[in-house]
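thought: fold this chain, then report.
action: predict
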Amino acid sequence: VFLGEELKQKYYNNFCKQTLWPLLHYLLPLSAASSGRFKQDDWTAYVKGNRIFLDKLMQFLRPEDDYIWIHDYHLLVLPALLRKRSYQVKIGLFLHSPFPSSEIFRAFPKREELLRSFLTADLVGFQSFDYARHFLSCCARQLGVEHEMDRGSIALKYFGRKVYVTISPTGVQPDRLLECYSWDDTVWRKGELMNQYRDKTILLGMDDLDVFKGIELKLNAFEHILEMHSYLRKSLVLIQVVNPPRSQSKEMETLQRELQESVERINSKYGSEDYTPLVWLDRPVPHYERIALYSIADCSIVTATRDGMNLMPYEYIVCRQGPDSTPGTRRSTLVVSEFVGCSPSLSGALRVNPWSVESVSDAMLQCISMSPQESKLRHDKHWKYITGHTAYHWASSYLNNLKRACAKHSSLKFMGLGLGLDSFRMVALDVNFRRLDVVSVQEAFSNSQSRVFLLDYDQTLMTTTSFSQEPSEEVLTTLESLCANTSNTVVIVSGRRSQDLEAWFGKVKNLGLIAEHGYKFRPPGGGTWETHLQVDPKWHDVVLPILEHYVECTDGSYLERKESALVWHYQDTDPDYGSWQAKELLDHLESVLANQPIEASKGNGIIEVQPQGASKGAAADVIFSWTRKAKDDVDFVFCVGDDRSDEEMFIAVEHVTYSPHMPAEVFACTVGAKPSKAPFYLDDPSEVLDILKGLSVL
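observation:
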């Protein structure tokens, strides 16, 4: 893939290295002079660069057969671009760099575009649980997408799909490194180094020149040792290999100056003609020389302030092990920053906070003075882990997880919604799920004699908001026309209070009303409300103080009182705290209501406490029973709703299809193309109203 110089500058140097890289390493460009400030031109170049990769990939991609494994932050929008081209393609994304906390990531102007792109993949991989945890927190806080455990795996439910998250630390290939051990150049360089540093204790650092590698912190700790322990000034040597920077910035130039000043200060203060305490190698170091340096070092030190995996400690362990033919006892010691991805895997290393000079210098001293027996035990523990978690093991494990994540592709059909990166998402639906065919509905309507319409209200007949909830004149007129036909039984099935429904629809003749998800029923043509559930209202006295306590303790929450139910709303609270409180409240209520005919259920941002048996599914059964008694067996059912509470109604009407005493044409329909028990969908309330208007004139 060839980008061209101008695009490469904006795509790689500007956006990837100066904007995205610092962000993923927890660094915000607070200064206006910072080179990491977001620029729209650089973002456009980043997306364009990803599109070029996409165009190249599409030349040979077989969407239904191939698995695509995308690596690292350079191609984070490629999953979304690829998914827009092919819904069936199987996509894995692995982030080798860290992922920041939600408080850092939320400051990024294109946060939703990146998160939605992550979620178009089938499997998202991270180096450590910390980074996966931050990603899950971002999904919950920015997109409202919560995760769940699925037989030991982490999964995010996103528009009918399950996006799996895996923690997969990378590894090295020990055999490849050990092959280099016997090269003539390696043997020669190792012998030369051993002769040069005879009777010296060698500390080794090997880092890219980067502001996050903590090289200056390492030098400060080394200087502190020499300052406080004069007996080590002739025997302790730090060899620091510095790989060239991958990009230049103002911060990098400042760092280079500071490091050079530190090197000169340490060597001039503690060095002599025959002793150089700090060996600074800021030149290209060939592979054989790296192997030689690893093999002679008594201790390896990583003090990165934030890093992805950093495989340098693994390479060091392998080289200290050497081939089986090498004589002698294998020993090694490690000082590793707790902010590095490999830190949790290296349980025998001394983990340090790199920002604490005393902590790092104490760990260095502990390694220097460690007994041979202890250093051997620590080395053996690391060697066992590294040989069991090689690069091959990492790759094969990830690909197996990707295959499992994509196993159900063939049983689903996919639909893309939205155009731009900020709105595009792929919806997974049952293979039988399809748009409602208006002609089929009209034919069945014309051939039927006894019809039932079960209509949800909010977001189904009307797009309601917090400031506009009443039905329009168009809705009322359409309902009046339907109810005028004596063959039609039309019922509004809502979660709203009976007073609200009475005020809005009370004047529509022959319209039935169901309030509070089935708790109360006003039959078509009847003026009085019926209650089919007889529950002692004293349970309010027990539950109400509990809910009021949680309202007081949870900022942003509030309590809604219905005749049949009490509802605690927490959708406007802090996402994490609200979820914690909701879980705690459910546990609390379950223990209090254990012997009561009352149930507490979790909805979308709510906890609702209501009598058992109050549901739209039960309400549908009541309506069918009433229709059979008042009119005739039903031979046409039109049921439409938009949210989770309507799913029980869809299940209830599905039973009508298979009922031997009441065969009927059933059209259960959800509003919006989303996973549902209903086999049909319509896009929005306007389409629902158009169908009802069409049927009212037949």
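thought: worth noting. The first strand starts at residue 67 and ends at 71.
final: tokens above.
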